[in-house]
Here is the input.
Amino acid sequence: MDTSHVTEGSLLARLRTRAWEAYKSLQPNQQSYLNAFALFILFLVLKPFDWELKKSFLALAVLFWGMAMISDLLSFYKKTAETLLGKLFYIGSFAFGTNLAIALATQVLNSVTGVDPGQFTHTIAFTSLLVAPPLLLFIAIVALVIGTMFFTVFFMFQTLPDDASRLMMFPWYKGGAQIVRYKGLTALVQMVSLVAVFSFAYSYSQDESTAYGEFVESKTRWFLYNFEMFQKTSCQIEEGQRVAFLRDGNVLVGRMDGDEISFIVRACMPAVGTP
Here is the structure.
C-alpha cells in the first residue's frame, strides 16, 4: 500500500485526535485518575534532576488523585444513601460511632481527673471530637476489609466479556444496562488508592499514637481548667488555681504551672474572711 501521501504531521494529528476523543469518553473520575498517573510519571522522569519543577508535578498528581477519590466517595455515598438499607447503615454507624467516641472521651477525662467525669459534660463533648479521628480510621479499615470481598465480586462482574456471561454468573443481573468503559480497571485503581491511603494513615497513627494520646490528654486538661472550673470561690485557693465543685461535697482543684495543668481532689477549706 502506498503511504507516501501520509505525512508524519498528519499521522501525529490523527493520533492526537484519537487520544483526545478516547480521553473525553472517560468518566470525570477516570480522567482525574489518568491525569494523576501521567503527572506522577513526569515526576518520576524528572526525579533524578535537581529541579523544583518535579515537586509541582507531584503536587498536581496528588491533587488530581485526591479529587478523584473524593468524587468516588461522594458518588458512593449518594448511591447508598438513596436506599433504605443504606440509610439504616449510616444512621447506625453514626449512632455507634458517637456513643463510642463519648465513652472513650469519658475514659480519658477520668484518667486525667480521677473522679466521676459525668458532671463535666462540656469537656466530654470536646474530647470526643479529638478521639474521633483514630476511631474513624479504625472503622474505615474494618469497612475496607469487609468491602474487599464485595470488590472481588464486582471486579469479576466487570471483567466478564458480555451480558450473556454476566447473566450466567449473576442471575439477578438485568441485561442491557449501559456499561461504563474500563469500569473494572477503574475499580481496581479505586481499591488500590483506598488501600494506599488507609495503609499510610494506619502506619502514621501507629508511629504517632503515643504523641496523639498525650495531645488529647493535654487538650482535655486545658479545656476542663479553662471552661469548667472557677477562679472566684468561697474555698481557699492559691494563685493559678481553679476549682470545680463535686457532688460529694469535695472540690476538684486545678493548678496551672506554665503549660502543665494538674488536678487534685480535696475538701473545700473556707477562705480567710469567709463566714
The chain has seven helices and three strands.
